[in-house]
Design goal:
Layout lengths: L2 H21 L12 H8 L1 E6 L7 E2 L5 E2 L1 H10 L6 E6 L5 H6 L5 E2 L7 H4 L3 E2 L4 E3 L1 E6 L9 H5 L6 E3 L4 H8 L7 E3 L3 H9 L5 E5 H11 L4 E3 L16 E3 L2 E2 L4 H17 L1 H7 L15 H5 L6
Parallel strand pairs: 1-4, 1-5, 9-10, 9-11
Antiparallel strand pairs: 2-3, 6-14, 7-13, 8-11, 8-12
Helix pairs in contact: 1-10
Length: 300
């Protein structure tokens, strides 16, 4: 579907659904005497969980909150008078527990919609569609271009982060547990590759790009070409980033989805994320919803 047709489609879809979303918004479970959205609109502030990882959300050397999803979230929330993000940093696999424990109100760390997560939290509609990538030593000495290449070489080791989708993909691909090294942060995985603890590290392509750019290490490179793992239907597996919220915060979810739909339809979503390396091909296809992905479908 072309860009213009896609925007027309989204505009029509928005006009038919926004009324329903806002009619039900008042049904959100109250936290104290106000819903999360009502409290945020009153104070102008929302508590957001980030994993301090580029390019998604991180604290820079001056102590300022930066990142692609930080800027996107500002654009999403500003129509509701919410202009301050109260950032809470946690390890990636601690973000959902922090959300459920009411320490944060929204996960803004580039988390992928995954059916196994959908029972615990609510996801916004997708903000991007991302594939994976290997970082390897210059020249790719082990000739690694897919997870299958790792399984075929039992002495090869691969690093990633616990709790991320890449960990699940590595396991499902048949890589033995003895070949997998888990690092608590992506930057620690990068250091592990530099030190020779692993032969490759596996992360979303944008994150891999960010690690490579930040390190400035000319002894490392992305593995090109790279073959995406495939699902049971034979389609390449891509992941859809979204914001995560508590299931009961239906008014906040409705507000976020409303803004995201408008930003995608207008082209501003790509404009915001493009400054951080996202491309048109990384934008979610028109009409793809979190509920579809939660049901296990692999959209095109």
């Amino acid at each position: 579907m072309g860009v213009i047709n896609r925007r027309v489609f989204l505009s029509q879809a928005l006009s038919s659904t926004v009324a329903t979303l806002w009619t039900t918004s008042c049904q959100s479970q109250l936290h104290g005497t106000q819903s999360v959205l009502a409290r945020a609109r009153r104070t102008g502030k929302l508590r957001v969980g980030i994993a301090n990882e580029k390019p998604y959300g991180y604290i820079d050397t001056n102590g300022a909150l930066q990142g692609a999803l930080v800027e996107l979230l500002k654009a999403v929330l500003s129509p509701y008078g919410i202009t301050q993000l109260d950032a809470h940093i946690a390890d990636f696999n601690a973000l959902v527990p922090s959300l459920l424990a009411n320490r944060i109100d929204l996960v803004g760390a580039g988390m992928f919609i995954r059916p196994s997560r959908c029972g615990s939290i609510a996801f916004s509609d997708p903000i991007s569609r991302i594939g994976g990538s290997f970082l390897v030593k210059k020249g790719n000495p082990k000739n690694l271009h897919s997870l299958g290449d790792v399984t075929r070489q039992p002495t090869v080791t691969i690093g990633t982060q616990p709790g991320v989708d890449q960990q699940q993909e590595v396991v499902q691909s048949g890589v033995s547990s003895g070949q997998i090294v888990l690092f608590s942060k992506d930057t620690e995985a990068l250091a592990g590759l530099q030190a020779g603890r692993v032969d490759a590290i596996y992360f979303p392509a944008l994150e891999a790009n960010g690690l490579l750019a930040t390190s400035g290490d000319t002894a490392l490179e992305r593995a090109h070409p790279f073959e995406q793992p495939k699902g049971p239907d034979g389609k390449p597996i891509y992941h859809y980033q979204a914001f995560g919220m508590r299931n009961e915060d239906t008014d906040l979810l409705a507000a976020v989805n409303h803004s995201l739909g408008s930003l995608l339809a207008s082209g501003k979503l790509l404009s915001i994320l493009g400054a951080f390396g996202y491309a048109e091909s990384d934008m979610p296809p028109a009409g793809v919803t979190a509920s579809q992905i939660c049901s296990g479908q692999q959209p095109g």
